Please model this.
Amino acid sequence: MARVMIGDVCEIVIERGLSADLLPERSGREQVVVITQAPVRDHAERVVEAIGDGSIIEVPDRDRAKTWDVVRDIYDELAERNVGRGDTLLGVGGGAVTDLTGFVAATWLRGIESVLVPTTLLGAVDAAIGGKTGINHAGKNLVGAFWHPSRVHVDLDVLDALDERLKLEGTAEIVKAGFIADPRILGEYRARGAAAHLDVVVPAAIAVKAEVVSSDFREGGRRAILNFGHTIGHGVEAVTGMPHGFAVSIGMVAAGAISAVRFGFDSAAMTELLFGLGLPVAAAGTSRQAVLEKVARDKKRTSDGIRMVLLRSVGDVEVTPVTADELDVGLAAIGI
Ligand SMILES: NC(=O)c1ccc[n+]([C@@H]2O[C@H](COP(=O)([O-])OP(=O)(O)OC[C@H]3O[C@@H](n4cnc5c(N)ncnc54)[C@H](O)[C@@H]3O)[C@@H](O)[C@H]2O)c1
Ligand SMILES: [Zn+2]
Model:
């Protein structure tokens, strides 16, 4: 079992199976409301059994749950059940469930406790960690709040049982954590490929995100390094509709190529690792203009000029403006 803390607000427990102490011990809790989706309903029922309490609200699958309609329905249920300040919302599912659960918990009665049980690899190493919650409104994740769960419970048995595709989607974010901060993650993937032990890479990736978030609670500066692979990656994701993790893999190849030109980073080794794991490393055929427009639009929202996360070497990160020529290098590296 491994434990990782984010400040003193969130405890992340990583183990195999479900321990009975899923909920932080405290007084005043009268009920637990569990939010989940159909593919993991069985697991939510096991969670309810383990804690010996809890009623389940099942919401539509995937990002169809991250809407005002669903939020409103849940508020109605919480009002009906008289859910109070001392009660707990528990999310069991992938990132869509944990984002939604966190958002409802952040806003109900100006904030009640949330506990998250992520059931996808992406959820476990990324979405459930760091306190960003949200729903989609006029764009992805445009409405949300920072609200840390008091506990995140990661069950590696559940993650091991995921189908190959869901596993691969989360793998990209774990590899990202390796490149920005922890070469041990890369060593494990180089040694074992896609059969890397989750007991090694999941706690390590969570520790990377937890450390970065702890040092930058509300995303002022350092947290930006978590966006490695995400600038061009988001552009590719928006234009192609491919899964987030796959787009991040492609985005890392692009950022790696720019890092190679700027700093002499060994981008070939990075591309080889991603390719070897079965992750996509190019997006040939995607409209270059559309990707560039998306990248520019994203940046208008966050800062002036296009900034990217580049690597001098593994673990040595620089967040820096990039030139149009450098963007060209990145796009060429991914066949756009
Ligand atoms: N808050 C953050 O910091 C953050 C970070 C990254 C992503 N996200 C969000 O996370 C969401 C994506 O998360 P995701 O990739 O987990 O996708 P998801 O939550 O949409 O889940 C994908 C599918 O897998 C199913 N599923 C979940 N666990 C399963 C299991 N154990 N076995 C079988 N099926 C299972 C889900 O029901 C769904 O059908 C997006 O909404 C994204 O915006 C948030
Ligand atoms: Zn991501």
Residues 164-333 form a domain with the Dehydroquinate synthase-like, alpha domain fold (CATH 1.20.1090.10). The radius of gyration is 20 Å.
